[in-house]
Each structure stands twice: as structure tokens, then as C-alpha cells.
Amino acid sequence: MTVSRGMAGVRSIGASLLDQVLAETLDPAYQQAADARAARETGSSAPARRSSRSAVLVAVTLLLSGLLLAVAYNQAAAKSPGREAIRAALITDIDRETTAGDRLSAQLETLETDVSRTRDHMLESTVEGQRALDRLAQAEAGAAAVEVSGPGLMVTLADHEPDADDDPVGGTNNEDPRGQVRDGDLQLVVNALWAAGAEAISVNDERLGPTSAIRFAGEAVLVDFRPVTNPYEVRAIGDPARLSTGFLANDDVRALAVISETFGLRFEFAQEDELTLPAASPAELRAAEATSDGSAAETGKTPVPSGQSPPSSSAQPSSAPSSRTPDDQPEEAP
User: Fold this and answer.
1) What does the DSSP assignment read for 58-118?
2) pLDDT tens, residue by residue, 200-214
């Protein structure tokens, strides 16, 4: 039997469709849903694996950190005895050098006393030597090189005392610089005492001499480059009644009293029956030359700083203005 070509083509198409239906048993929509579910399952397992891997890394990191801390602690503990030994050695060196310095200072004082005693003994044997001793005593008194005692006046200056509002725990801690004693305030008091007739003055046991200076350095007040602390006690030897009268009659002192009351400074003075002022540090002798009368005169001295006056009864002390600005001072003094 013969089959035409057209019928053969239709049969081949039908066979291929039948084969496709037999090969694909699931509906395309069902197959798509199955593929999506498989993809979700695959994706959820990946984060789980990543989470377990991160936990392992964190554990390893913590283990390494603990190991490093343990090693560092062991090293620090091993070095601690060495540091303590070095510290103890430094303390020993400081104590030894301090003791040696104190011993040398005492030896120097003893030698200076011996030299002075020998000098006085040799000069007292002649009239010219006695005159030299008299001139030397006057020079030492003028240079504040000897300790002096006698009645006088003591003036006390102190910073404003903090109150509850200045407590850093319970309130503000804004310190007003106008409530602090400044170098100009001490200069004013010292110059007023010189003008009132003081024979010798000291500030917190720092004796003032012809070249003394009172200056501010940061937050510290320096007298001859030595720091003095609050409160500041200015002692002046002289006639107490005369010192009090002249001191209170000074216009700058009255202005300072008003300023002290305004900004809470402590400003007090009292007459004393007995005051003792230490000797000032000796000035450095740079050069000396003979004068026409045969005595020696020192040359190359440091000039007296501004705002200070030499401790001499013939000196004309100048009054130094307060270091505060005009805006800080009240308009009128009572």
C-alpha cells in the first residue's frame, strides 16, 4: 500500500507531540512552582552555613585575643619587679643627693660664719678696719643681707575663697580672675609700706632687697624668681603707728581695699610688737674697683626693677598701679 507524503508529515507531527507529553509528565505551572521551592530551600541552607562559619570565626578571634592578653599580662608581671627596683634606686639616689646637699649647705653656713668672725677680728684691731666694718654693716643692711627683728606691720592678702556655687560637683567652677591676688597688688602694698617708712620688708619669708622683683608667671607669684603661695603675708619692720598711718593714707591702698571688698579678696593688716625677717639671698658680685677714698665700689649691678623700691630710709618709693583694668575697679572709693 502506498502512503502519500502529506499524510506522513501529519503523522510525524503527532508522534512528536505524543513523545513530549510522555516525557513531561508535570504541568509547566507545577514545574515552575517546584523549581521555586527548590531554590528557596537551597537559599535557606546557605545562610545557615554562613552563620555557622561566622560563629567559628568569632570563637577563634576571641581565643586569640585571650591568648594575647595572657601573654601581655605575663610580660607586664615579669617586668614589674624591674620597674619597682628602678624606682627604689631612684628614690635612694634622690635621698642621698638631698642629704649631700643639706650637708654642703650646713658646711657653707659654717664656713661663712668662720670667715665673718675672722674678718671682724682682724678689722677690729685698727681704726681704719673699724671704719670698714661700719661701712660694711651699713651696706649689708641696705642690701638686706642680714636678718633683722623689731616691731612693725603685717599685711595679709588672700584670694577669694570658693563657695558652694564654685563646687565642680554641686555647681559651676568658673573662677573669676579678679578674685585672685596679682603681682600688681603685692607691688602696691610693698611700695606703700616703703613710702610709709618701712625699714625692711618680706613677702612670705622672702626678703626684699634693692634688686628684688615681684612678678606673675602663669598662675604663680614670684618674688626674686621664687614662688610664693596664697595667702600672702607682707611683713614690714618700722614704727607700727607711723606705718599704719602712712599705709592707710595711701590712695592706692584705699582703692585696693575697695577692690578687695568688691571681689571677695582678703585684705587685712595688724600692728606687731615683734617681727623677724630673714636675710635675702646675697647679690652676685660681678666686678669691683677702688674709689677715691680707698674703699671698694661694686660695678655692674642689676638696676632696680620698676615697681620696686630699695629698702633704704632715704629712698623715694614709687607707687605701682594695680594690675587690674579700670573696668574692674569701682568708680568711687568710700
Assistant:
1) HHHHHHHHHHHHHHHHHHHHHHHHHHHHHHHHHHHHHHHHHHHHHHHHHHHHHHHHHHHHH
2) 999 998 999 888 889
Question: Which residues have a Cβ under 8 Å from the Cβ of 235 and sit 6 or more positions away?
Answer: 152, 153, 154, 201, 202, 272, 275, 277
**Amino acid letter, 229:** T
* Backbone dihedral region for residue 307 (phi beyond 0: left; psi -120 to 50: alpha; all else: beta): left
Identify the DSSP state of 319.
P
Omega of the bond leading into 311 within 30 degrees of 0 (cis): no
Q: Rg of the Cα trace of the chain? A: 47
Looking at residue 232, what is its pLDDT? 93
Contact 261, 180 (CB under 8 A): no
What is the predicted pLDDT for the residue at 32? Answer: 77
Cα–Cα distance, 319 to 310 (Å, whole number): 13
Give 77-127 pLDDT, tens digit per residue: 777 677 788 888 899 999 999 999 989 988 988 998 898 889 888 888 888
Q: What is the CATH number assigned to the segment(s) 149-164+175-281+288-328?
A: 3.30.70.1880
pTM above 0.70, yes or no: no
Give CA–CA dist 13/196, Å, rounded. 137
DSSP assignment string, 131-160 = HHHHHHHHHHHHTT-S-EEEEEEEEEEEPP
What are the distances in angstroms from CA 211 to CA 196, 222, 303?
20, 14, 7
Distance CA(97)–CA(88), nearest Å, equals 14
Cell of 120: 671682724
Rounded CA-CA distance 292/172 in Å is 68
Ranges assigned E (strand) in the chain: 148-158, 200-203, 206-207, 214-217, 220-223, 226-228, 232-237, 266-277, 287-290, 296-299
